[in-house]
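Bug report (template v2)

What were you trying to do?
Predict the complex of my protein with guanosine-5'-diphosphate-alpha-D-mannose.

What happened?
Run completed; filing so the output is reviewed.

Input:
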Amino acid sequence: MLESSSFSGDPLETERRAINASSGISVIIPTYQEVLNIPHILSQLDALRRAAALTLEVIFVDDNSQDGSAEAVAAAGFDWARMIVRTDERGLSSAVIAGFRAARYPMLVCMDCDLSHPVQTIPLMRLGLSAGQEMVVGSRYVPGGTTDDDWGILRWLNSVLATVLARPLTNVQDPMSGFFALRKVDFDAAHDLNPVGYKIALELIVKCGFGTIAEVPIHFSDRVHGQSKLSLREQLKYLQHLRRLYLYRFANAMYVAQFLVVGLSGLVVNLVVLSLLLALGLPEPACLAGGIGVSLISNFMLNRRFTFSYARFGPLARQFMGFVSASAVGLVVNYAVALALRDADWNTSALSLHIAALCGVAAGTAFNFLGSRYLVFRKRHIRR
Ligand code: GDD
Ligand code: MN
């Protein structure tokens, strides 16, 4: 599955990025309460280190498990293995990032501690990087990749669904994999890393903008000792993570899509309020005004909190006035466009008044969107 390299012709750059058969490898293993697995993964890595004559360091990044993990690493007595114990932060992705930062070799590998990932794949990963790949992923879903049989249908479905949702972001078949390799220089150059949740590989694929990613098939074994920490809560965080990655990759399309969804919700709010007020027996002009007013407010709040959430700490009153103004101008644009199209020469059939009206709505909405995006909720370049 190795594709061609994407290196620039610059010899200095090529040298900086070079990985070869003697490059050192930093293996980063995030851990939380993995004391039972630590001796096993270390002996697997030690055997590999000797067999393949690897220059290797292993960095466990532990979130203060206090289960004897640190002692287990020390007891193994390998000068190439150490554990960073964090007490100030928690979380799988941020642990991996901390380990990558602390790494000293040009090639980084991330893997689970629970023996799910086959260490023998690591030399193959290095081969992929040395052939010019920017990332190599240990994959369950390419030909030759397998998982232990007792993967229940639910776990499988879950994994497939998560992968499908990530499809617009990457062609990688198994972007959920926790076993992957990349260059230290590429990691160091990545910015805007957002260490939310479990899917650190996907985060890096999107934020590093990798073009060439190879997948090597692995057999994914079920963990024998300890428990998975992949909770329902983590899976919900994944949806939040996905939204952020979509925003990052498809910023304007996402703003438009969210703005339209909010607009549709405003339509529903408008009609519901109208019906309620009518049921209360208010005069019709008041009911119409009520529907418009409430939907204007709900649209404003949703756009502020959701569509343009980066602006949610901005000045509320000023934003609201701006939003009302943009909507008012949008209405005028809507009306003017519809009128102009109605009066156009080609306009003869009865249907075309409706078409003119629709075009008016489209123009007004587009105007509203642009006003909201670039004036009302504009990005101020202030870093918090
Ligand atoms: N430092 C730290 N902090 N480590 C953590 C934390 C945390 O909050 N949560 C989990 N880990 C460690 C675990 O100790 C383990 O070594 C590794 O991260 C993966 O956690 P598991 O709990 O074994 O996750 P999993 O097997 O359910 O999920 C794995 O497979 C998924 C694909 O099926 C992970 O590799 C996922 O990244 C992957 O998506
Ligand atoms: Mn696991």
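What did the reviewer find?
Residues 112, 114, 116, 223, 228 surround manganese (II) ion (ligand 2) (CB under 6 Å). Residues 251-279 form the longest helix (29 residues).
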